[in-house]
Amino acid sequence: MSMGNLATRSITGLLFGIVVLGSIFYGPYTQISIFSLFMLLGLIEFYRLFDKHPIIRVSKEIGVFIGVFIFSLLVGISLEILPVISVSIIFPLFFTLILNELWKKQENPIVNISVLVFGIIYIVIPFYLTIDLNLRNTSYLPLIVGMFLLIWTNDCFAFSTGRIIGKRKLFERISPNKTWEGAIGGIVFTLILGYIIGAYINKGEELFWMVSALIIAPCSIYGDLLESLFKRSLNIKDSGTILPGHGGILDRFDAALFAIPFFYSWAMLYLYW
């Protein structure tokens, strides 16, 4: 990566971080607005990945519509605007995907349905969980802010450590530039930040944040690798072009999309068990 590309990537990452964290601190409705936009762009990017695929024919409009509808429904329940029983509407929605395939006369309907459903689960659910977790927050530093700081720390230090001392390939078949040294470096610095958050910011929460770091660091690495696997299998470099130096929304959220569900489950167990 050239110095010019690195500078572009750094500036874009900084501005992106300001938007994400600013929306969280400014209030739940601001976060909902910004993250709804991210979710929508992410869904569109994901389904566009298959535009030139020789076998998979995804009904993008239906996938985006159902994804947005489910996201809005879940957010409405978290805001207590809608009753919890409203979640039952989700089940027949998924079966409409099957009905759609009956009329398309494609050769691989099961694959098409699987891609549509996976896109909704992979993108809609993590973005919704960030909103739900923030609405439940009682910490001095919002849980979701700490989570993103840990994810970004792992990403930054895995990248920089790998560039400086990386030699042993982690998953060369999927991502040739990732190394074991980079992965270990990211985990170590994520643990350090987790301890700092628990000891000096959300005081007395060292256990929660250290365990969070142990969960988030490897999940972030696997999330990055999963996105790389998608793009390599589809022979695509980036999921989009909206973020200079990064690519698309999915390229920027790849680690987070995998880490968020694991962090959310741990946070719920810790807070309510």
Question: Average pLDDT across residues?
Answer: 90
Structural class, please? mainly alpha
Strand content: under 5%
Largest sheet: 2 strands, antiparallel
Q: Compute the number of strand runs.
A: 2
Number of helices: 9
Q: What is the 3D shape? A: globular
Major sheet: order of its strands?
1-2
Query: Spans with pLDDT under 50 lasting ≥5 residues?
Result: none
Q: Using only CA atoms, what is the Rg?
A: 19 Å
Integer tally of domains: 1
Distance between termini? Answer: 46 Å
Give the helices and strands as they follow along the chain. Answer: HHHHHHEEHHH
Helix-residue proportion: over 70%
Task: Note down, in words, how this protein is organized.
By secondary structure, the chain is an all-alpha fold. The chain has one domain. The chain is built from 9 helices and 2 strands. It has helices spanning 3-26, 28-48, 60-78, 90-104, 109-135, 143-165, 180-201, 206-233, 249-272; strands spanning 169-171, 175-179. The protein has a two-stranded antiparallel sheet with strand order 1-2. Strand 1 and strand 2 (175-179) form a beta hairpin. The protein is globular and about 60 Å long.
Summarize this structure briefly:
This protein has 273 residues and is mainly alpha-helical.
